[in-house]
Amino acid sequence: MLITRVLVLFIVVLNLLSLELFAQDSIMIPVVSPYTGSLASFGEGVKNAALLKAEELNAKGGINGKKVGIRLEDDLCEPKEASNVSARLANDKDVVIVVGHLCSSATLAALPIYKKAELVAITPASTNPTIGKSSQYYFRNVYQDEFQGAFLARYADEAMKWKKIVVFYETNDYSMGLKTAFVDEAKKRGLKLLGQEAYTSATTDFTPQLAKFKMLQPDAIFIPGYAPQGTLIISQAVKLGMKVHFFGADGLDDAIMLNNKNANGLLVTTPFLAEAAGGQAKAFIDAYGKKFGKQPNWFAANTYDAVGIA
Q1: Using one digit for the tens of pLDDT, what is the confidence trace for 164-174?
Q2: Distance, CA of 290 to CA of 306 (rounded, Å)
Q3: Which of 96, 153, 164, 179 has the fewest Cβ atoms within 10 angstroms?
Q4: Which comes out higher in pLDDT, residue 61 or 256?
Q5: What letter does residue 63 receive in the DSSP assignment?
Q6: Helices and strands: H and E segment counts in the chain
Q7: 207, 234 in Cβ contact below 8 A?
Q8: Pairing, β 67-74 against β 97-99
């Protein structure tokens, strides 16, 4: 019943939005993401996919005969900047829906501002479970961390047979939400959580925490963080001579990680895998590759869908 209520609300909201759009000559959709800073690689896929979807919509006559444009807004994946961006959008009478934000901390900072303004938003990537429970105006087209974190604990236990695990997490809403879901499920399964250590987005030297982990002799290190820090963690662990497996979530699924030779054998979850795509997803991959000369990542795929929903 809960799913039915949410879907009905979304349909009603979209119908109200369509009335707003009739009064405009064109439709401008803000797409908020980190386009600069350490997570700019996430934003590249977001930008490309949003522009591609708008181009395809316009080739088919737009929406209700109106051209669709994309307005890129950079929040740096930072809560403070996300608050500034969301306040600007909430005060713009021409904005009737927002696609974004990407990072959970940024989305949670923007959420109360959009809620107060009754401005609808859809995030293609924020997985913190609080988001869907905090506003009737915020939607997402991605799974959430209560599912993802629990799945990773089950997979570590049942598929990989890892029984001794340490957790190395970042102090942000995304990472801590994942950590909580993973730890809860791991404890239910009787896995031995030998240690938990935290780091910030500004950390570049992870050897003090890794040295502690090395002494504990875990089977695996769970890294529920983002790729820029994750790739450093793995490289520094290998340099310390750690013989251990690494696994994480969708935040590690990025080219910077995939190009790291030390990350061979890394296990991650992802909502989209280009190599396994078929049907409409294959058509999207082909169009994206033709236009941008590369495969889309999952941020691109989910943004493409989110713009289509918007």
Answers
A1: 999 999 999 99
A2: 21
A3: 164
A4: 61
A5: B
A6: 12, 10
A7: no
A8: unpaired
